[in-house]
Amino acid sequence: MKRLVTTAFICLLPITIWFGSVVPITADRDQEHPTLGDSVVLVNPNSDNPFVTYDARPGNKYHAFVDYSGVHGIYPEQIALDYFGFRNDRDLYFDIDRDYTLVVLTGGSESAGYSHRTTIAEHLEKVLNEVTERTCRVLNLGMNSYCLPNEINTYVNLAYHLKPEIVVSHTGWNDFFYARMVPYNFKRLGLFFPNICGNGFPASLTCKNRKALVGC
User: Fold this and answer.
1) Which is it for strands 80-81 and 67-69: parallel, antiparallel or unpaired?
2) For 167, which DSSP code?
3) Is there a domain that residue 201 lies in?
4) DSSP 3-state helix, strand, coil percentages of the chain (rounded to 5)?
5) Backbone dihedral region for residue 86 (phi beyond 0: left; psi -120 to 50: alpha; all else: beta)
6) Which tens digit of pLDDT belongs to each residue from 158-167?
7) What pLDDT, on a 0 to 100 scale, did the predictor assign at position 126?
8) 214 within a domain of the structure (yes/no)
9) Quick check: 90 and 82 in contact, CB under 8 A?
10) Which residue has the higher pLDDT, 68 or 123?
11) How far is Cα 179 from Cα 209, in angstroms, rounded to an integer?
12) Residue 68 · residue 106 · CB < 8 Å
């Protein structure tokens, strides 16, 4: 039987999901990029990933294939980062011959769980496993301030090869927020990106304080 692949793009704009203990966050929080806590937790502390070499300061790090990674939030002690710097307690990227239903969640800081001790992805996985016979796993590709082009890039590089049964994009607010800061012709093509430096271009390319992003 052909695998049924369902793709759901959910544009929530400023609407917030209330799901279990998930609480709403404000737009301002998504833009702060603060330095939080004393350390980060790696799922695989002996990682050989050259793009994700975390120091003691949580925050975004430049990544050649997903723009930047390194989920951070107001409860750093609750955040475990996987091989590519996303908030997962397992590295599902390499499960080519999997025996479970895979759901991929993409989005900005709400998906990443900026103000949540437990993420939407974790809640969703729990509920799915309670109501379905087959094991379900949710790969959380949410990242602070991600816009839709960031999500697409991340999905293509990190999840497309897994052929997930379901893809959910929890997106919209960051695109609206950053759209006012990008050149007009970028807007015409829907090319929005996090304006971290405030000059209309990605911080990884033009920011004089690039080390703040890279974390070195």
Assistant:
1) unpaired
2) E
3) no
4) 30, 20, 55
5) beta
6) 999 999 999 9
7) 97
8) no
9) yes
10) 123
11) 23
12) no
In a domain, 26, yes or no: yes
* Token duo for residue 81: 């980062």
How far is the C-alpha of 55 from the C-alpha of 49, rounded, in Å?
14
Containing structural domain, residue 170 = 6-180
The 3-state DSSP class for residue 101 equals: strand
pTM here is 0.72
- In eight-state DSSP terms, residue 93 is G
Number of domains making up the chain = 1
* Residue 208: inside a domain: no
Could you tell me the two tokens for 56?
Answer: 């003691």
Nearest-5° angle of CA 135, CA 141, CA 146? 155
Q: What is the model's pLDDT at position 160?
A: 96
Q: How far is it, in rounded angstroms, from Cα 191 to Cα 82?
A: 27
Tens digit of each residue's pLDDT (9 = 90 or more) over 84-116: 889 999 999 999 899 999 999 999 999 999 999
Strands (E), 46-153: 61-63, 67-69, 80-81, 101-107, 136-142
Task: Report the share of the chain in percent with pLDDT over 90.
Answer: 37
3-class SS of residue 68: strand
Structure token digits, residue 100: 């479970």
Greater confidence (146 vs 33) lies with 146
pLDDT digits (tens, 9 = 90+) for 126-141: 999 999 999 999 999 9
